[in-house]
Amino acid sequence: MDKSLNAADQRRLLDALEKAKGSRKKMAAKEEEQRWQPSGESADLAGCLAKLTKGELSAIRGHLDIKGASSLKKQELIDLLADKLSAMLPVLLSKMDEARFRILKQVAGRGGRAYLPLEPEQLEYFKQRGLLFTGTYKGNRTLLLPQPLVKSFEAADSPALRETVRRNTEWIQLTQGMLFYYGVLGLAHLESLLKQHTGANLNVTAYLAVMEDALPYYDNMKRTAHGFAHYRVWDENKVLEAHRIRADVPLYPFTKSQLKLASEPEFMERSAAIQAFTGFIKKNYEISADAAEHLVEECVYAIRSGEMPNQVLEFLQSQMDIADLELLKAFMAHIMILHNSTRQWELKGYTPDELSASGSGKAAAPAAKADVIDLTTRKSVGRNDPCPCGSGKKYKKCCG
Where is this region: Disordered (predicted)? Predict the structure, then answer.
């Protein structure tokens, strides 16, 4: 909280934040209630489309790339989409990966009605393409694939389509894995790496169509002016500039299996340094294993994005009560080991230890200044002061 605010202003600010949080919860609850409204027996496509707003229908039209229909009235748009969707379903399927294809296959295989536990953004993905509709049927939450689409799906499901879906899955997984380790990649690098890992030339047009269609469904990557980036990269130009500075350093040669593993949701490398730091926090604080792991994971992402050890310590000082100098030293020791063993975006997927051992790395760009407090004196540590870790060296020659 900003200490320049008086007590009354701070109270008003806290009240406003609580009200905003309460409003978001109410809005989410209202959306959830609306999503699972009772639905009737009918599995008619036009009837399902009629329950959507004009804006939602326009979104479906956009995903189907139907031109010259922006001026249509709602009923005219419903009739047009009901007529076009079944015929255009194979085009939509040709952009999907196995996860999304399998969801539609499961619902179609159960006669067009089934319940699968999907996240709101995943449900929205299918809704915006006019494929799955949510509701409560006979007292149970249900996903509905209208009967015309069930028949169209069954007709389109072929070995050729399944091979396209398999190819898309590999493209998406490899891209997610590469962004996890490298942070940002331009299309030229992506094309070269995908050719290397798949053994085939990349159809860039098809690849971009597949990736653009995947972005709303997966929340771990984003489109950039240059190509694609991991969702936690805040400054893509900074990462790309660091890659340019190290032009003589090749991207770390991850294997195909390593990249696919890194594409899995919530993936985080469980290195010895990470496990040791997590155990240290759990030992010294009354904190759950999940909370300790989350703190260390945030430290890893800070390091991965280029933060220096003193900035990581500053983050932990803001989150935890580091009560004495000995504890501070222990924290800094763990942070240094974690920093030097973490694969970093600006280092092209290498750890500082690996680049140091190879002798091929250039020094990291200086990070923004972040104060570290010496707990014995309660004063900010200057660059020429003794390092608070107790090494005897000047701060600028040690942890700074």
Answer: 20-39
User: The tokens of 272 are what?
Assistant: 């010895």
Could you tell me if residue 29 is inside a domain? no
357 inside domain: no
pLDDT in tens, the chain (400 residues): 444 566 677 677 777 777 777 777 777 777 777 888 888 777 889 999 999 999 999 999 999 989 888 888 999 999 999 999 999 999 999 999 999 999 999 999 999 999 999 999 999 999 999 999 999 988 899 999 999 999 999 999 999 999 999 999 999 999 999 999 999 999 999 999 999 999 999 999 999 999 999 999 998 999 999 899 999 999 999 999 999 999 999 999 999 999 999 999 888 888 899 999 999 999 999 989 999 999 999 999 999 988 999 999 999 998 888 888 999 999 999 999 999 999 999 999 999 999 888 765 554 433 333 344 443 443 445 555 666 555 555 544 555 4
Range of the domain at 71: 35-115+125-156
Tell whether 177 and 241 lie within a shared domain. Answer: yes
With b for 16 or more beta-carbon neighbours within 10 A and e for fewer, the 301-310 pattern comes to bbbbbbbbbb
Residue 199 and residue 210 in contact, taking contact as beta carbons nearer than 8 Å: no
> Based on the structure, what is the number of domains in the chain?
3
pTM, 2 dp: 0.81
Q: Same domain for 210 and 255?
A: yes
Q: Tokens 């696919």, residue?
A: 260
321 plus 310 within the same structural domain: yes
